[in-house]
Specification:
- The protein has a six-stranded antiparallel sheet with strand order 1-2-3-10-9-8.
- By secondary structure, it is of the alpha+beta class.
- Among the domains are: 127 residues, Muramoyl-pentapeptide Carboxypeptidase, domain 2, CATH 3.30.1380.20; 112 residues, Muramoyl-pentapeptide Carboxypeptidase, domain 2, CATH 3.30.1380.20.
- A hairpin with a 2-residue loop joins strand 6 and strand 7.
- The chain has 13 helices and 14 strands.
- It is globular.
- Helices cover 40% and strands 25% of the residues.
């Protein structure tokens, strides 16, 4: 395991707080480039949501998931790696080992899982591969895309990737040199973040300067895992390009039904258990947790048996937020629901969840005096 310096006060790895900036708008961005937004999010819903979307629309989406995160990883790494270091690690000598070291170190800090190198060979600019074994990946599909994007960023050679499960929870991914269709490269461009001012300030650790609320999370650096100690959920540091641009690309390719499919897949996952409406209706805590994750600035949350209304400025991962709000309302009130939502050009999100008429009639009948 590569050694990673950790803050002695809050226990957070120093690269985590040094490489990222939490803005007063509720956004989280790269320290070296504030146009690149990132997020610190729950990861256990990711693959189930992708699978749920496939089941709802009846079309495989794995290739798009991998391609979008590959492109996002390529941009992310090239922004955090100094040009001088890039020139060294992209040279033929030791290139593969540097890829492996980067994947291992990044996986430790970001919560990707445990990486082990099992095969490296680069014969020329047109031929080569890197194979890694990944134990307990936060997402199989996203991990495959990250592997390909990392190789591209370091070697400046286009890569494709394959993956297979070799034992329960253990996967092997092989990224190999291969050209991408020009059409795909043009379509999957990452969105730049435009800074907006806000009014949310997170309390800071006196030693490292990172958000003090990060002390509630535990890093298992050997296994490459991060857990929220308040609810035992697994976390990951990853860019919103793993979500919003992916779903927007799916919508362009497969049709207008994609947003509803994403929301429904998330709603189904959240209702499997372990989540409660209290996480959302305590506005102070919810506002802090959203900003800590880089998902936006909570402006309003109103809850009753008749509706749940939420307003988040500068929102990221907005379709997943809509699906979570719908699921939490249904669980709390025990009704089926309708959800309406709107996202502005400036990424301000409004959500309203209300009981379906038949469910609401039953609810009112059950609550009337006998």
């Amino acid at each position: 395991m590569l050694e990673v310096a950790v803050c002695p006060e809050c226990g957070v790895p120093k690269p985590f707080t040094e490489d990222n900036v939490w803005l007063n708008s509720g956004a989280m961005v790269q320290a070296g480039d504030e146009t690149r937004r990132v997020g610190f999010i729950e990861s256990e819903n990711l693959d189930p949501v992708y699978k749920g979307i496939e089941e709802i629309i009846g079309v495989p989406i794995s290739h798009l998931v991998i391609d979008v995160i590959r492109k996002g990883t390529l941009d992310y790494i090239r922004n955090i790696t100094l040009p001088k270091i890039q020139e060294i690690i992209k040279s033929a000598e030791g290139a593969g080992n540097n890829i492996a070291d980067f994947l291992m170190a990044n996986g430790q800090v970001c919560g990707f899982g445990k990486y082990e190198t099992i095969g490296i060979e680069y014969k020329s600019a047109n031929e080569g591969y890197t194979t890694v074994r990944l134990t307990d990946p936060f997402s199989v599909l996203l991990s495959a895309g990250i592997h390909a994007g990392s190789c591209e960023a370091i070697l400046y050679l286009p890569h494709e990737v394959t993956y297979k499960e070799v034992s329960p929870g253990v996967y092997e991914t092989t990224a190999y040199v291969s050209k991408h269709p020009e059409e795909l490269e043009e379509r999957l461009m990452m969105r730049l973040y435009r800074r907006k001012e806000g009014d949310i300030e997170l309390e800071r650790c006196a030693t490292c300067g990172g958000p003090k609320a990060l002390s509630s999370f535990k890093w298992d650096l050997e296994k490459g895992k991060i857990f929220n100690t308040l609810n035992s959920r697994r976390m990951v540091l990853i860019g919103p390009e793993a979500q919003d641009p992916l779903f927007e690309e799916l919508e362009r390719e497969l049709g207008d039904e994609i947003p509803a499919a994403v929301i429904e897949a998330q709603r189904r996952f959240i209702k499997t258990g372990g989540y409660s409406i209290e996480e959302m209706v305590n506005a102070g805590d919810f506002r802090t947790q959203l900003a800590l994750r880089g998902l936006g600035n909570l402006r309003k949350v109103d809850m009753s048996s008749k509706s749940l209304r939420v307003r988040i400025d500068n929102a990221a991962g907005y379709l997943l937020i809509v699906g979570m709000a719908q699921a939490l309302f249904e669980t709390a009130v025990d009704v089926e629901s309708n959800v309406e939502w709107e996202i502005s050009k400036d990424s301000d999100l409004d959500v309203e969840v209300t009981p379906r008429k038949t469910s609401y009639a039953i609810l009112m009948e059950g609550s009337s005096p006998s």
